[in-house]
Every structure is written in C-alpha cells, then in structure tokens.
Amino acid sequence: MSKLKRSLKRPKFTKALHQAPGTMTYVGNKETKETLLEVIDYNKDHYQRYTSTSPEDAFKFEEEQNTTWINIDGLNNTEEIEKLGKYYDLHPLIMEDIVNTGQRPKIDEYPEYLFIVAKMLYYNGDGSINNEHLSIVVGKDYVLTFQEAGGDVFDGLRERIKIGKGRIRSNGADYLMFALLDAVIDNYFAVVDDISDKIELFEDRIFHARTEDNLVLEIQELKRTILRIRRAVFPLREVVNRLLKVNHEIIEKKTESYIRDLHDHMIQISENIDLYREMIRSLLDMYMSTISNKMNEVMKVLTIMASIFIPLTFIAGIYGMNFEYMPELQWKYSYFVLWGIMLLLFIGMIFYFKRKKWL
Amino acid sequence: MSKLKRSLKRPKFTKALHQAPGTMTYVGNKETKETLLEVIDYNKDHYQRYTSTSPEDAFKFEEEQNTTWINIDGLNNTEEIEKLGKYYDLHPLIMEDIVNTGQRPKIDEYPEYLFIVAKMLYYNGDGSINNEHLSIVVGKDYVLTFQEAGGDVFDGLRERIKIGKGRIRSNGADYLMFALLDAVIDNYFAVVDDISDKIELFEDRIFHARTEDNLVLEIQELKRTILRIRRAVFPLREVVNRLLKVNHEIIEKKTESYIRDLHDHMIQISENIDLYREMIRSLLDMYMSTISNKMNEVMKVLTIMASIFIPLTFIAGIYGMNFEYMPELQWKYSYFVLWGIMLLLFIGMIFYFKRKKWL
Amino acid sequence: MSKLKRSLKRPKFTKALHQAPGTMTYVGNKETKETLLEVIDYNKDHYQRYTSTSPEDAFKFEEEQNTTWINIDGLNNTEEIEKLGKYYDLHPLIMEDIVNTGQRPKIDEYPEYLFIVAKMLYYNGDGSINNEHLSIVVGKDYVLTFQEAGGDVFDGLRERIKIGKGRIRSNGADYLMFALLDAVIDNYFAVVDDISDKIELFEDRIFHARTEDNLVLEIQELKRTILRIRRAVFPLREVVNRLLKVNHEIIEKKTESYIRDLHDHMIQISENIDLYREMIRSLLDMYMSTISNKMNEVMKVLTIMASIFIPLTFIAGIYGMNFEYMPELQWKYSYFVLWGIMLLLFIGMIFYFKRKKWL
Amino acid sequence: MSKLKRSLKRPKFTKALHQAPGTMTYVGNKETKETLLEVIDYNKDHYQRYTSTSPEDAFKFEEEQNTTWINIDGLNNTEEIEKLGKYYDLHPLIMEDIVNTGQRPKIDEYPEYLFIVAKMLYYNGDGSINNEHLSIVVGKDYVLTFQEAGGDVFDGLRERIKIGKGRIRSNGADYLMFALLDAVIDNYFAVVDDISDKIELFEDRIFHARTEDNLVLEIQELKRTILRIRRAVFPLREVVNRLLKVNHEIIEKKTESYIRDLHDHMIQISENIDLYREMIRSLLDMYMSTISNKMNEVMKVLTIMASIFIPLTFIAGIYGMNFEYMPELQWKYSYFVLWGIMLLLFIGMIFYFKRKKWL
Amino acid sequence: MSKLKRSLKRPKFTKALHQAPGTMTYVGNKETKETLLEVIDYNKDHYQRYTSTSPEDAFKFEEEQNTTWINIDGLNNTEEIEKLGKYYDLHPLIMEDIVNTGQRPKIDEYPEYLFIVAKMLYYNGDGSINNEHLSIVVGKDYVLTFQEAGGDVFDGLRERIKIGKGRIRSNGADYLMFALLDAVIDNYFAVVDDISDKIELFEDRIFHARTEDNLVLEIQELKRTILRIRRAVFPLREVVNRLLKVNHEIIEKKTESYIRDLHDHMIQISENIDLYREMIRSLLDMYMSTISNKMNEVMKVLTIMASIFIPLTFIAGIYGMNFEYMPELQWKYSYFVLWGIMLLLFIGMIFYFKRKKWL
C-alpha cells in the first residue's frame, strides 16, 4: 500500500525452513551485488580510513593501541562474511544471526566479545522508513558492524571520529559501541516524531476530508507501522538494560554513565511509542463516531423532508380523487383554505423539529 | 467450518472422566490401525534405521556408544506403548501424558530422563493445519518420541542424520532433542507466516469483496486459529526457558548455546503471534467501520433521491387536485412556469447536497 | 433466567453482617433436613463403610493403621458440625469457613492438619450446573470432607476404594486428598467442555436464527457463567501450587508427583477458561457486526425501492396535473413515449445499483 | 445526579494548596458543630463508657490492665484534635492525615503505635452510600479512632464489648483493632451485594424499559460508584496484607490468624468488585446492542411499508395521468385487472420479506 | 486546538539529532532573553535574597552553616548554565538533561549530589496549563533549580522561607528539596481536580448540547491531556520511591518520614489520574450510545410518518385514476366511506406503534 509498509516488510522465514541449525541464510529483501568493507582505525592522535570489497584486507589493522571499527555492508554474500567470522572466531550461531534479518534485537555475552543485534530505523530520501538489521560485535579493541545494505545513521559519528570532535577519539571500543547505539536511538526519536505529526494530520483529515473511504485503511497502516517500530525498539531497551548490568571486562567504568543515559532515552522512546499507540487507537474511535455523527445528520435531513412532504402529498392526493360526490371540490374557497391548512402543517412540523433540536 | 478448524479440534476430556489418576486414555481424534516403530541408531561413524510394529524390537538397540532415536507413530494402542514405557521405566503419569493429547506443552525432570510435551503444527498437503501431540523422552543415550499419527516435521532431520550433514552425528542425545525441538519450532514460523499472509488477504477482501456476509465468521475463525496456535506455542517457550535453567546431567555444556538460540526463536514467534493477534483484532474494527461507511453511503443516496423528488411530487400532486376554483389551472403558461420552479428546486437541492459534501 | 444462573447464585453475605468474627453462619442456599455422615475406613486389606446422622458415631474409627474418610453432607445444622470440629480440635475460623459458602478456595496450614476449601462444579440430571462448597481437612490418618448437600463428584472414587482398584488403598490420607481434588478437577473439564459446545452453538445461532432478540442476553449469561466458573477454578490453582511448595509432614514424598500432575491440569483448565472467555467476547462482536450487516441489507432494499419508484411516481404525478395548457397531453404517442422513458430510467437505476454492488 | 454520587463526592484538594507540609486542613464535606468524644474502657471483668466534648476528659483513662477505646466524631475542629494528638505524641504527618479525607487507606508503623487509615462504606437510612474517612491509632493498651461525623459501622462491636459476648473482652488493643477493621470490611460486603442487585435490575430494565434515554447515564453512574468503592477497598487489602507481615510488638501472636481471616475477606471482596466491574462493562455492550437491534426493527418496518406501497402508488399514479390516448383507460375490466396485479405485487412482496425473515 | 494542547506541546527531538552525546541543546519552546538568577541564603536566624543575571554572582554564597537555594530561570542561554555547571562540578550528562526538556522525570545519584528531573504543571492566568521542565541538584548545603522560564509553583515556599514559618528554616538542603517537590506535587492535585471538573461538565454537555459535532474532538483532547499529565506524574512517583530507598548522606534521617508522605501523595494522584482516564474512556462510550439513541429516535419519527401516510397516499392515488369503469366513483357515499377507512387505518397504525412502544 504505502511506502512505509513495503519498507517494513517482514522477512520470509520459510526461506530458512528445514535447514540445519547454525546454517547461514539471508532472509532479508535487500540484495546487494557485493559486500563492502569500511575500516576506520583510530586513537587519540591517529586516524585512518580504508575501504575494500575483500574481507582479508581488514585483518591487518591489528595494533593494540588503536580502536578499529570494521563496517560491513551487504549480507547476501554469506561466504565473505563467514571468512571474517572465522578470523574473529565468532560462534556459528552469531554468524546465523548476522544474516537472519528476522532476529529481534538481543545481546549475547561471550568471553572475548559482546554480540548485539539492533534495528536501524531511518528515513530514506523519498520519505519512506528504512528498517535495517544491524549486528554489532564489540571486542577488546575492535568493533564489527554488519548491515544489510549501504546507507546508515552513522555519518555524524564518522565525521566526529574524523575531526576528533567530542570524546570519541580518547575512548576505546566500548565508547564506540555506545556511540553507535546512541546514533541508532537518536534516529528512533526522528521516526517517532514523524508518527506524532501523522497523528495530528489524521485528526484534521477526519474532520475535514471530503471522501473518507480509505481513512480506516490508512489508520490501520499507521497502527501497523507503530507496532513494527515497537518491535524494533522495545527489545533494544532490554539490551541496553542488560548492558547496564553485564559485568564484562570490555565495558569500562567511565562508559557506564553513558549507557545509563542511553537507557533513559530508550525509556523515553518507549513511553512515546505507547502514547502514540494509544492515540492511534483513539483515532479509530474518533473516525467511527464521526461517521455515526454524519449518518445521524443524513438521517435527520431525510426524516425532516419526508415528514413534512409525505402528509402534504397525501392531502393533495385526497383532492386528486375522482369521486363524483366530493362536496369540498365545489366550494369556492376550498383551494385557498387547503393551502392555509398545508401551510399550518408545514409550520407546525418546522416548529416540532426545532424543539427536538434537529434544525 | 473450514479445514483449519477441524484440524485444530480440541480433544474431548470427558472421555477420561471418572477414571483413576494415571490411567492411560487416548483422547485425541486420530485413530491409527497399528502402532509403528522407527528406530534410528547412530554415532559418528555408524548409522542404522529399522522399522517395526512390535515394541519389543526396539529393545535390542542398547549400545553405550550409540545414540538411539525411537519414534512411535499412533497412540490409540495403549498396551503397546505401555510395554515400551515399562521397559524404559517411565513413570505412570508420563504414560498418561503421552496419550493425553489435551496435555499442554511442559517439561518434567526425572533423575534418569527428561520428559517434554510439545505440539507439532504443520501444513498437510491440502493446506489444512495439522496440530499433533508430541512427547519426547530424553535419556542418557536414547530419545523416545511419541506421535499421534504418521507424518511429521522431522524428515529434514532424518536426512541430516542419514547423510551425516551438520553437527548431528557427532553429538549425543541432548543435541538430538535440540534438533527435534528446532524442527518443531521452525514449522511454527511457517504457520505464523501463513497467518500473516491471510491477514493481508483479508484487508483486500474487506475493501473489494462483493458480498461480505461471512467475513466476520472468517475473521473469527482466523482469530480462533491464532488463539489455538498461541496455546501450542507459548507454553513451549517456558519449556525452552526451563531447559536453559535445568541442571540435568543429560544436557551437556556445549548444547546450551543451541538451546539459547531456540529460546530466541520462541520469543520471536511469540512476538509475531501477539502482533498478528492485534492485527486480527484490527481487522474486525476495519470491517465494522467499512460496513458503517457503506451504510452511510446507502443512506446518502436514499436521502438525496427522497429529498429531491418528494417535494416535487407534492407540487405535482397539488395541481392534480380537482377543485373547481383553482386559478393557476387556467393560466396559459403556468405549466411551463411550474417546470421552471421545479427545475430551480432541483438545482437548489443539488447545490445544497454538494455543499454538504454528500455528492 | 436460565438454570445455569440460578444454580450459580451468589451467597448473600448480608446474612452474616454484624456478627462476631468466628461465628458459624451458613450463608448458602441449600437447606437440608439433617446432617448426613458417611465414614469410609480402609487400608490395604481392610474396607468398611458406615453411615449415620449423629457425629458421635464417627469418633470410634480410630485405628492408626487405617485411613478414615469422614464425609459430611449438609451445612445448615451448625451445632452438629461444631461437635465434630471440637472433637478434631479445628480452629474456630475453620469452623466459620466450612459453613461460609462465599469463602473462595484456599489452603490453610495448621500444625496437625491442612485445611482446603474448593468448589465442586458438576452437572445435575436436568443439565444445570451445581456449584457446591467443599471443605477438606487432611490429618495424619483421616480426611474430613464437608459438603452443602448430598450428591457429589466422588462416586467413582468411592467405588475405587471399595473394590481396591488403582493405588488408592495402598496409600494414606494425603493420597486420598489428592484423589478428592483430582475428582473435583476432572469435573471442571466436563463443565468447561460444555461451555465450548455452547460457544459453537451460538456461532450457528447468530448466523441462522430467525429472531435474535434475546441472543445478547444469552451471550451475557454465558459470559457470566464463565466468570463464575473462573472464580471457582483460579483460586484452586493457587491452592494446588501452594500444596506443591508446602513442607508439611502429612504430605509424603511419593504423593508429590501426583500433585504436580494436578497442577498441570489446573493450568490446562485455566487456559481453556481464558480461551473460551475471549471467544465469548468475540461472540458479541460477531453478533454486533451481524446486526450491522443485516441493517445494511435492509437499508439497501429500502434505498433501491425508493430510489427507483419515487422519481417515476413524480413523473406520473406531473401528467396527472390538471393544467389546461399541457401540450404533451394531446400528443398521440406521448403515453407510450413516457413508458419508454420510465423504462429507461428503471434500467439505468438497476445498472447504477449493480455497479455499486448493491444488487 | 443520584444520591450515590453526592455521597461519594471527592474532597477538594485545592483547599490545602500552597500550605506548609504537616499543616492540618480538613478537606472533607461534613461539617460538625463540635467534636464528640466517646471513651470505652474495658478488661475481662470491667466495662465503662463515657462521652464528652472536650479531649482532656479522655486522658484520665490510663490503667495498664484495661484496654481503652477513644472514638472521636467530627474532624473540622482541628485544634481539639491537635490537643489529643499532642497528648498521645502523634507525629505531625499523622495529624495531617487524620483530617485529610482525601488520604487513601494506608498503614504507617511507628515505634509506639500503628497508624491505619481506612474508609467506611455503609448505607444511610435513605439508601445512599456513606463514604467516611476513618483513622485508627493502635497503641499498647489503647485504640484511637477518628471519624468525620457521627454514625458508623461499630454499633454491633460496641454491643459485644458491653455485654461481653465473643472474644473481645478477653483480648487486648490489637484484637480491638482487628474487630474494628472486621466491622468495616463486613459493610463492604453489604455495599458490594447491593451493586450486584443493581446490575441484575439494569439487565431487566435494558430489555423492558419504555424510554431508555438516561440508561447510559445511570450505567456510567454505577460504573463510577464501583470505581470509587474499588478505590476505598483495594488499598485496604494491602494494609491488611502489611499487617500480616509487620513485626510489631503491639500485635500478639494469637491475633494473627484473625488478621489472616481479614485478608481472606479482602481478597473475596476485591474479586467481587472486579467481577461486578466487568459485568457493568457488559451492561453497556448489552445496551448498545439492544439499541442496534431496535433500530434494526424500526428500519425493517419502514422498509416493508415503503417497499410495498411505493411501487403500488406509482402504478396508481400512472393511471391518474391525463393523457388523451391511454388505451387501458377505456377497457372495461382494466380497473379490476389492475387491482389483481397490485394484489399479486403485494403478496409477492410479503412472500419476499418472509423469505428474508423480516416478517 | 485548545490552549491546553498548545501548552503541553511535545519538544522537537529532531533539533538534537546527529549531535555528539553530552552536547547541550535546548529543545523546548520557551525562549527567554536572558538567564535570571535568584539566590536565597538562609539558616535558622539568617535570611538573604539576591537576584542577578550573571552566574558568577552566585558563587560567593558559600558558608557552611547556611542553606543556599539558587534558582535559574531560562534555559536557552546554554553558556551561562555551563559556567554554573562547571563551578558546581556537574557531570556533562546532567548538563545535557537540564536543557533537554524532553527528558522524563528521573533521579541520578552522584557521590556529591543528587540530580532530580521533574515537571511542573500549573495554571497560567488565562486558564491554560503550563508544563515546565524542572531540574534540581541537591548538594550538602545547597540546592540548584533550573527552570525554562519565569513563573513557578514556589512562591508559597519563598514566602515561608522569608517569614520563617513552618519547619523550613530549621532544616537543611534535603528538607528544601522535599519542600520543592511537595510544591510541585501539590499543583498536580489542582490540575487533576480540574480534569475531574471537566469530565462532569462533559457529561452534562453530552446530554444537553444542541450541536455535538466537535465533542469527540474535545473528548480526545481531554484524553490526550490526561495522557500527557500521566507522563509527567508517573515517572516522578518512581523518583520519590527511589528517594525513599536511596542511602545518600545528603538525606537526613528525620526528612525520611516527609518523603514517605510525598510518596503517599504521588500514589493518590496516580490513582486519581487512572480513575479519570477510565472515566474519559467512558465519556466516549456515553457519547456514542447517545448518538445511537438519537439516531434511533430520528428513525422512529421517519418510520411512523412514512408508515402512516404512504399507504393512505396509495389509497388516494387509486381513486385518482382515470379509468372509465370504476364503480366506486359513482357511489354517493364512497368518499365518506373512504375517509372512514383511512381514519381506521390511521388509528390502527397509531395503536400498533404504541404497542411497540415507539410512541
């Protein structure tokens, strides 16, 4: 129907049916020609950016002092990803989750790294929402991010790393993880803000639209959108909450207050989503009562017209009868008297409907 | 009504009323002529498959190094099952649960084995859903599975064991249990995907159907289906969650991450079910407001027709009266003047309805 | 209204208003002439049954090796019950609860015995549901049961004790308690099954009934019935759950797995009740949309009839006018031309309504 | 609207706005001329009752062996209450809560006493519900109760203390507290019973009432009443639950089982309230579908009448036309033939509506 | 729409999109020319008040014995606030939260101070609600409060400090914090009271209004207002609850009972909000059923008028036909007989509708 719907399409799980567990199968809808690698290697004083299409190129960035962020675009080339996974010793089930776009946001703790799944929601140029699967592996001095296709919410972060603005360059991989999640969550605010605008727009449309034939459909569409956004956002709240409690050596003490800040944001978004969800539910009530109100008005017009003219027509019918002996027909003023009676009836009716507040 | 309904029929518990506890009574609807046994015995290097109709044939597969999977099809022959139960020393209450198809998914821990009840949901050839009671007993080196009738979701698994693909052959009975549950859960995805397709189909039908007389019935049917699927799926989530926490010697350390993966899948399905459930609820709202909308349209047509022609008919009635003294009747152009007046009235009405946005 | 309602009548608590706490007041609706005692005394090899109307007769069954089940029918004779209570040293608040039929299911633990309140739901011969207050006191080697009136769900159990079938004779008072609760719960299944049948019946009636005037009332009745059943069943689930955790010397180790089985059954019934409750809620939706649909159909017929004939009547009215100068009246074929015009209008209307899918 | 509403009026909190915390401000609606004191002093063998209007008179009842119950009627005379508060060393915040009738039921534990706030609900002589703020301070050998105005639910208790019936005289202040709460809760049963009666009355009215114009209003009124009762009752359940767990020297061991009994009653009332709340919600559904049903019936009558007579009127209109060449007009039997045709049409219509089950 | 809505406008989070975490960006709607500082320095015997526009002026109030309250009005001048933040060593994330008006109420504990975010809700002079972001930093002997603009709920508190009324002057910074929160919460009562008045007003309007076209819109507006109030109030309840449990040296023992009192008030408000929310939901039901009822009445009038006069008009039409052979036309009294028949029909119809209770 709308662009929203298409972009929030559910993955077809049946693609992966009857396969051995741990098998990598990309179930998403975004096919890319090749897998693109982007490596950003930095510390307080050093910054290097490198792009490639072969995973092997990433393995040389291995200095202890530096933080290395390797971003992979394109998941349908499972062999390439497998190579990277083997190099960094990722568990087969992680490999499966990276390409399984149906996987809900979660966090898995392994001795050497943390594995986080999240969903990026952001606006495309044409106004449609992009719902993209994002996997993050955070190690001691590296961060791997896996995305379905090019285009993401990290451009501001890339810029901050490059020009060394903010705290990013003087902190390690755990802070980079926080900054990535922070960018993801910031975009949730934008998407949720947009829903709020749409709700206000609908309220106007419900009361002023000419033909409201497909409004229900559109309200349902909005409802479905917020349900799907909710599904992307709410599990991430638990992920962030878990990050607060996890006692992993990768996460340094000073990063914790930033993660608490993330958690605050997640709660704020969650509350907004539930608020807007309730408002959307109200939209339908409004719409239904507006229809009822309009039907009521239609009925009133019909009833007033019919109630006034049907009796009058009956009277006219009486004197249209062809009986030979109808005394009134011969009286001279009966025609005018009849007009008077009909006028009185008319006025009486109008008065009656006025008193009933129908007019 | 539909095939769905029939296949998801509830068992009649009254069959088992007034019996001593622990009495085996098959309450399901699938009668089979005889109980079929299938034994698959394997280890890393060895594979043997054997079928029989007498339980005694299963007892000879007893080597410590091998994993033995004994699958029983057909539950109405309770004596045969009792023999097997006695051989493996199963508790009388387990025996009762194996044939009680009304038993919800659960896990019971015994010193020597784990007992799991699950529900298989899968599509028959004719598109109807099959809801089949499945009991799994997992011992140190054997797995017993009990099904109501032939036909299940384990063909892919059987194939993987046979050709030795994946991790199945190099792992023990606990991994086999995981693989069985994984196959069961994978089919939930297929069933739930289908519900999602049906919901989209309904949205189209609601807006384009000619006669929508039985749509409510069908929406209710869909609602009931998802409620019944929910009942099969949600308790299994708790079973898997319990498997994560159970500290039983049968379950080896390395299998745990696979069970965690199962748990992820169960949460994903549960969320999908609740999402679709909410969407189905919305379908009814959509349908109701569509009916209201259509009724509104019908009312408008009636009101417009009546409001325009009833007053005009009244006027025509007036001049059909047979009074002797009606001056207008003699005037030469009064007929044409009347046509003019009626035309003006007509145009005025049309204008009025346009302004009210009814036209 | 229906028999259901009458039999599930709430007790009038106001009967017991302004009384000292611990005062025994029977608030139920079932008056019996006298209190009937039934004593069943048994062990592995011994069985004796004895009935009486005076409580003192029960006190002689006092052998350590035997299990004694004393069943009391009729609660309005509070003095008789008080005698028994004093003999077995029951707490005054227990005595109050035994005759207070408004007491919800609960379990109280005392050093010497357990006190359980439950509700028996079972069908009378005439198809109405009987909701009866049942109190169970379980001691070391005796079980006391108090019922409002004769007639209960324990006939199967009595038979099993008599003929020594099953495990009952070789187990003690705790197993007897389990067997009593098991009989109570088995009957819940029958009652809930019946609700399910009624729901299916209603679905048919909603779509095929001639006059549906009192369907809402009946649906409400069904809803109320399930709400009341729920009230009898859900607290008992907690009682059974508590029995699982209670660490009382009366309950032997081997009985525990049977109580776990009870708990499984209670969860199953609870889920069924909630499922049927949701289905009943859907019935009302179905009914409402069916009414709307039918109203829509009525409106269509009216609109089609009126829209076709009102304009035609107007045309006929025009040529019924008595103006002297109406040129058409004199033309020879104008009558037939008019018929043609009216036919065209008629066909046009039919075509219009066909396109709107009203026909 | 009704008396119910007036008596359950919310206190105006704005009275107390912009005041320092701990300031005593009576926000209720019941003004009394003077504060009335009633002192009941008793032990096993001794009973004395004394009334006064000056708080100082209460201070002389100070014997260790006796239990002293001081009941104060009238809260708008804050200075008098303050004197008493100072004598018994009550915390300023307690003093504030005693006169703040908007305070919800709660329990505060202090080293020397317990402070309990509850709401008395009981029927006035004229059938309206009285919702009265009650504060209880329980010390070692005294109980203070503060009420808004004269008239309460403790007359039965006063009588029992006077004549020494029941356990009251042989127990201390903690049992008196239990007896007071028990009297409060007993009256909840009466109020809730009355709601249940009203619900049944409404069901009848919905189906048999002549003009149902203000039924919605009354149903809403009932809904609001139960919501307000709920607010008085539910927090008290937590108070009683807290009393069960509090480990205060004032509460003796033997009183605990009585408090457990209170808790049972509170749960029972809570469940009844929620049940009736759901039933009230159903009343509105019933009412709405009854309206729909009646509208449907009205529509049917209209449609039948219009569909039968509009076409017939059209036919009559045809032969009322004044064309010169209308061959049928001259045929001798055409009038009778027309009557035949119209009769056939009439019968056909009746038959059609019968088949549609509208007649 | 209404003033309410405008004043409860959500902040635009998109303002702060793509910024580094910890960046101060004011996202609210209240722009002030300059930041206003108000310093109140007091102890038991001393009181001093000082206002300024430069933060540096605040730093000189630094005596151990005194409590210093520094209130800052205006948040869009982020540099000024940053100076103050640096002086008091506030964490960057606190600085961000102070100006982020979208931040929900929360409490953060730091070693040196507590940081509390709350929302002030109060009425402007013109009757609109003001929703203002308030940040409170509580240190050992100072309290900082940050507000969006001038005008707040603390005037009563300022007066009490000035004239030394109540406990405020003899207590420290923790009691000042309590007094601030108490003032904030007291105003919630006023706002919630107003909602309750509006609900009662709506009930009247629903039943007596002439044109109810925009009532749904206004009910929705009220619903949205209470949802937004809820969002301001509920998180603060958790803040107060946390304050009860926090074990921070700043909060003295004697202040705890006051905080417990705050918590009581928060629960009371929360319950009121949920009660009114449910009542608002009921308003819509009432409105819908009122519309249905009115439509029913309209339909009845139409049906009665049409059912009476359409058959009569048909009869009149019959005798307006121009057949040559219509025997009745010549009979002398047929006109009067016909009037009789029509009168009988009329009376019969009236009788029929009376019996149906439509009249």
Notes on the protein architecture:
5 copies of one chain form a homopentamer. The first copy, chain A, has helices spanning 3-7, 78-87, 92-99, 155-163, 173-208, 215-245, 256-318, 327-330, 334-355; strands spanning 36-42, 47-52, 67-73, 106-109, 114-123, 129-138, 142-147. Residues 1-9 of chain A have low confidence and may be disordered. Chain A is rod-shaped, with a radius of gyration of 34 Å. The first copy, chain A, has a 7-stranded mixed sheet, sandwiched between helices. Chain A is α+β, with helices and mostly antiparallel strands and 359 residues long. Helices cover 52% and strands 14% of the residues of chain A. Chain A has 2 domains: 2-290, CorA soluble domain-like (Beta Polymerase, domain 2, 2-Layer Sandwich); 295-355, Up-down Bundle (Methane Monooxygenase Hydroxylase, Chain G, domain 1). In chain A, α5 (173-208) runs antiparallel to α6 (215-245), α5 (173-208) runs parallel beside α7 (256-318) and α6 packs antiparallel against α7. Chain A contains 9 helices and 7 strands; from the N terminus they run αβββααββββαααααα. Chains in contact: A-B, A-E, B-C, C-D, D-E. The interface between B and C is large, with 65 and 62 residues.
